[in-house]
Each structure stands twice: as structure tokens, then as C-alpha cells.
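Task: sequence in, structure out. Protein: CoA transferase.
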Amino acid sequence: MPTALDNLRVLDFSRVLAGPFATMLLADLGAVVTKVERPGTGDDTRSWGPPHDEHGQATYFQAANRNKDAIVLDLSDPRDRAEARRLALAADVVVENFRPGLMTEFGLGEEQLRPGNPGLIYCSITGFGRGAGARLPGYDLLVQALGGLMSITGDPAGEPQKVGVAVIDVFAGLFAATGILAALHHRTRTGEGQRIDVDLLSSLLAALVNQASSYTSAGVVPARMGNQHPSIAPYELLPCADGDLVLAVGNDRQFAGLCRVLGAPGLADDERFATNAARVGNRACLRAELVRLLADRRVAAWVEELTARRVPAGQVNDIAGAFALATELGLAPTVELPRTGGGTVTLPRNPINLSVTPPVYRSAPPDLPERARTSGTRHRGSRR
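Result:
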């Protein structure tokens, strides 16, 4: 099967999540990714458990490392640095997320590799850039706090909350992969490689989208609103007889449909609720009306009737329920990958559906190879 990134060689020095997630996306699209790991411990996330799968591998590591080879190199060892340099000079793409300046200390900086590999795409991922923030540690929780995301997440009467997954690393990984693909397109036209810099803080600020533009364009500093939306109503969780109903009413037609299902069509004509702007301005009164009308029926009954009327509604699933829903809808949310030595691991699939060069799933996340001195190289995880 042809792949979008056939024969693209990626040397991945990154660890934890943002960089490995970016390179996994490239590997899914056909790139040959070699993951460089430290002797003994490898990627930090190899020890981030529980949970572990039945073979003892940390599931956190599995989340961002399928379809890759692994090689163990000690970059403090001159012979290993020479091997790393040899691999980098033969690569199309190098990805790293060390503290700024460390790759240069190893002789593996972009400016040191460029003369020997003019077409190289060199992607550096940092927490806060290579300038004044270079010394700050780039951990997702810290960036969520410093970058404002926690200030808009959680109950307004409670403490700031982090999002339940390391979304900043995921954002940065997506931006990094996008930048790499753009640089590859430029190289195809010109033969010229380039450097890509992605930092977690800038990735978050860009991903704040409407919450960011409310500040940059209108001078409004957003605050925590729980599950409500600053610009749309009703767009929240509402209690029913046996649990919470999710309503995501995005326009007046949907609101009119909601009111008809609730047996209160007159609400749609009430001047307090007739337009989205009016509903936002009177959200407390609107919520009180909806809570009263929803109270006597079960969530599932409301969801069925509202969905039939094309009113966006649902219930809060746990992770198992979310995968079950995707399966029920025919979205095939998982893939099963072969492990070295037998057995398989099941992981979420890549959501990009390409009609001619779809993602490929060659191998499970690699085990950490033994470090061995054989002709100046180190053992690799086998490509399956």
C-alpha cells in the first residue's frame, strides 16, 4: 500500500509527549521514524505507570510511540554522539525537545548539521522558546497554569482546574507535525531545508482560539464558567431525573426545536430568549426554566427526542462509553498492532482518513533495546 510519506527518514530525539506524538503522526503516514533513547531508562514515559499492559509496558509510552524503531545512544559518549550525527546527516527530519542549547553542546545543533545536510528539516520543541524562557521547565501542567488555560477551566466557585489530559503537549505535537509537513512541501519545491521552532506556551495561546481573541480583540479577560459557554446559551449540562443532559444549542432554530420538545414553544418567542445574544444575557433565567422543564424525565428519553428534532443533545460518557459509541457509529476507533515476540497491543487509531494514502499501522511501540557496542552502533528495536 502506498503511503503519503514513503521513504521519509525521521530521527527522533524527543521524549515524553509533544515530540513523540508529532513523530508518531508522521510514522502513521509512512515515515521511517528512529527513536533515540537513553541507556537503561529510555523515554521518561516508559516508567510513567500504572497502568501497564499485560506485557508490563507503560500505557502512557504506548500512546505516542507506535510504528517506530528504537535505538539506544548515550549522547555523553563521543562514539554514540558520532553515530547520532551520522544518522542525523542521513535524515530528512530531526525532532528534538531538549533544553535549548543542549543539542549544540552535543554537536547535533541545527547550525552544525546544516552544512552536511542542506535539505534537513530540523524541529525543536521547547516549553517557553529559546530566549528568556529557555530555562523554564516545559511541563504540561505548568504551561496550563502559566498560559491561562486553568483560569478558564473549572467551577467559578472552586479552584482552577487542569484539563484531564496533557492537551498542551498534544497541541504542540500537532503544530510541530503541521510545520514539518509545510517545510517538506517547501523543500520539494526548492530543495531548501529549514528550522522549525514550536513552544508549548505559544501553542496554548493559539489553541485558546475564541477565548484568546476575546482578550486580544475586545479586551475581555475570560473567567471560569464551569460547563457554560461565554458566547452561546444554552450550552451546558442540565440536571434531569436520573443524571445530566448535555445541551449544545448553537442557533435560534435549534433553540426553537428545544422549546417544542420541552412543551414550551413560547420560550422561543420570549424577548429574553429569542436570540442567542438575549439568551447569553439572561442565562440564569433561562437555566432556571430549562431545569424546571427537564426535571421529570430521564436523560436517555430527552436525548432520543431531541436528537430526532436535530437539537444537539447527549449524555456524559466515560472513556469506555466513548469508545463504545465510536464503534457503534462505525468509526473503527482502535487498531491492533503486533508486538515483538508475540501478542498485540490495541491503541486508538489515527483519525486522518486519506482516500489514496491512508495511515498505516506496522508495529507496536518498541521495547527498549539493549545497549551494545557493535561496530560503533547500538541495537535497534526491530521494525515489524
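The chain is about 35% helix and 15% strand.
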